[in-house]
Amino acid sequence: MLAGYVYKLRPDDEQATKMDNWLDMLRSSYNWCLNDRIEQYYQQYICGDYCDLRTKAEACALTCFVSKNGASGEPWKLDNSEVEIIGECCLLPYDLNNLPYSGKTPRRSAGDIQITTLPVLKKARPWFKDIDSTVLQQNIKRLDTAYKNFFEGKGFANFKNKSNFRSFTYASGVRVEGNKIYLPKLGWMRFYNSRPIPDGFTIKSVTVRKKSNGYYVSIRIEDKSVPDYIPLPIEQVNTAVGCDVGIKKLVSLSDGSQVKNPKFSTNKKMRRRMKIRQRRLARKKKRSKNRKKAANVVGRLHQKISNQRTDYQWKVAHQIVNKADLVVFEDLKVSNMKKRCKPKFDSDTGKYLNNGQSRKVGLNRSISDAAWFELRLKTEYVAAKSGKRFEVVPPHHTSQLCPECHHVDSSNRDEEKFLCSVCGYAADADNNAARNIKQRCLDKFNIKLTLKPHIKKEKAVRRDLPEPEQLTLGLILFETPTCEVTRVQRSYVRARNSKRSQRTEPLEAA
Ligand SMILES: [Zn+2]
């Protein structure tokens, strides 16, 4: 089983400066390698003559960046004695049908080539010798991952700047003893050992990450003897809960309960605080030390928000999973929901009309703040960890479908209230959606639950709907107290009560 543990590091001044320098050097190496690949690609694109060093085979310019005259080093793995290099070309008795490598192509990938040129880099720029060699290699593998993502349809790799290049990874050589960690070429470093690494686990890889309040280390550990989490087989599911995510209420569950959304970054207080801090930053002189300090203050606030959100979501995920054997979410495409509105033109004047984007900005911000996908991932993880099952269903019409008569109509829903226009069934709209989500999953797997449905079948009049009960379990307060009783108030209440008792005593005596 694989697991990831994160700790905060306590480097001394020397180590902190060293890590800062490493990040700068690794960033430049990363950017150089990226530029190298881009240039190679264009060179081949223009010349068209590539990949014919040995096999004379054509390769796609997108997948192969090595050109005959490429400056990026030897494109073949030289572990075969038959290979003989003359100049830049490999000449050997060799044809495509008779591969000497038992079918495996001995080609190096772009990443491999760049890794083998690292010694050249160290010779030309000796200060790179300060960096651990596995860190340098992993840095190039990071670029490989970026290219892999690109070929899978994500965006093209970016050149990195100081703000988006903040981590480096060790592949080996790291040791942990008590509250000290040994990082090669940085030495022993103390860290806050908030939870010990369990026995039997070995360290797979270690990533050091810079955040606005210091350095963190995330350790990937593995124990092959411990089996991975196995989800509950579908036949053993006895209870199920459907979850509908939203903005007013973070999660509405099919059992009628709802989870509050604290809106960590979009609530009034936090927005005001952020606004003030960002304004302070904007008014500082560019490239000044004070600007750096102000930027750090903004960064720390962002980090605080993200910490709060993560903490809350773990708690919510645990509470949801505790409710049933099967947890069902809807498969929302959040990025599509956050898309910009299409521009509107006036056909006569050709001018842009108001398309509602300025209003949507606020909605998009709330969607990002709610971080539904993060919650879904956490719930999935918690469900797997506690031996339960997690499923997703398509989200179409979950909020417009009547669970009683299966009538689908957008007029069924009026903001928070659901009232079927055919059969008159009424419920809270979000809880109703959650119920539909649950039912959709049950239909998909053809499960019949042994327990009774949570929602009572009774028709309510629209205005007399009962308020859904709030989750008040555990640590999370889903309802913040409206007023806190201060000491002065308490003494006032005590005085008032004593007066009352004095007043009542003579009556009783009489
Ligand atoms: Zn109906």
Automatic annotation (TrEMBL):
Occurrences of domain Cas12f1-like TNB (ranges) = 372-437
Record domain Transposase putative helix-turn-helix: where: 1-43
Protein's GO biological process: DNA recombination; transposition
- The record lists the organism as Dulcicalothrix desertica PCC 7102
Write out the similarity annotation: In the C-terminal section; belongs to the transposase 35 family.
Q: Keywords assigned by UniProt?
A: DNA recombination, DNA-binding, Metal-binding, Transposition, Zinc
GO MF, one example? DNA binding
User: What is this protein's record name?
Assistant: Transposase
Q: Does the keyword DNA-binding apply?
A: yes
Q: What is the lineage of its organism?
A: Bacteria, Bacillati, Cyanobacteriota, Cyanophyceae, Nostocales
